[in-house]
Write a structure and sequence with these properties.
single chain, about 270 residues, alpha+beta, twelve-stranded mixed sheet
């Protein structure tokens, strides 16, 4: 698929998820994710892939993600871990500068709490698409359906208002951290607390449940019926194969003209 896979991309692989590198609100199942030239962006929603019709959209069901609550991520090099943590704290409404509190750390490990899962039924997605006419010639969609581009539909999104972070030193021993210092750095909008008496795991909690991982299906143009007609070909995406990295929602929205030069939300 031509996607660069590194530690920040696949640290949720053991949880069966692809990673949203800057967790945020407003990401839901049925979103379309386009990838071209190594850049990815949310470009629209499933209903915009086909010509307007009366077919009902697949339903989205929310539930507690018991299999993810409390599960630990892989241990990341501190530079990568702090980049992810800084993005989460910022999305929670906190301040930057958390790096100073982890100056003695070499690796970070994450765990999410109060995790919920929003899921769209994959069979319903297939039924919906089979009832409609794909917009093969759309100027944006076509660059992801054909050639070197890739198009994905998000089938599941997991979200959490709280993340626990454990720091480790160069000998892989857990580090105690100064909770009052961390509280002073991140500010009053983010709840900061130690988990247990050792201060080795620090919990960060915001007011909003942020999407941090997803499951997706890849869609592409093909001839699945061998009748010479264009068809949508479906392929499940392996956990850790795709990462979603988004600029601020306030960034100027624009249509893509040529290779993607920056990562933005683009309307179809």
């Amino acid at each position: 698929m031509g996607l660069c896979v590194d530690r920040s991309v696949n640290y949720l692989r053991n949880l069966g998820l692809n990673t949203i590198l800057q967790p945020r609100d407003g990401i839901a199942p049925l979103a379309l994710l386009g990838e071209a030239n190594g850049q990815r962006a949310l470009i629209g929603t499933l209903d915009q892939l086909i010509e307007p019709n009366s077919a009902p959209l697949p339903t989205i069901v929310s539930s507690v993600a018991a299999n993810i609550n409390g599960e630990r991520s892989s241990k990341l090099p501190v530079e990568i871990g702090l980049n992810i943590l800084g993005g989460i704290i910022s999305a929670m409404g906190g301040n930057l500068g958390i790096d100073a509190a982890y100056s003695n750390a070499k690796r970070l490990e994450f765990a999410f709490a109060d995790v919920t899962r929003d899921r769209a039924n994959a069979i319903q997605i297939g039924d919906f698409l089979s009832e409609g006419k794909v917009r093969w010639n759309h100027p944006i969609l076509s660059r992801y359906l054909f050639g070197d581009g890739n198009l994905y539909v998000l089938t599941e999104v997991v979200r959490s208002p709280q993340i626990s972070v454990t720091a480790f030193d160069e000998h892989k021993a857990s580090l105690g951290l100064d909770i009052p210092v961390i509280k002073g750095i991140v500010g009053g909008k983010v709840g900061v607390a130690a988990e247990g008496s050792s201060n080795t795991a620090v919990s960060y909690k915001g007011d909003t449940s942020l999407a941090f991982g997803f499951v997706a299906i890849e869609l592409s143009a093909g001839d699945s019926n061998h009748d010479g007609e264009l068809d949508l070909v479906f392929r499940p995406v392996k956990a850790g194969d795709v990462a979603l990295s988004l600029a601020s929602p306030a960034v100027e929205r624009k249509l893509f003209d040529g290779p993607l030069t920056q990562l933005v939300d683009a309307p179809v």
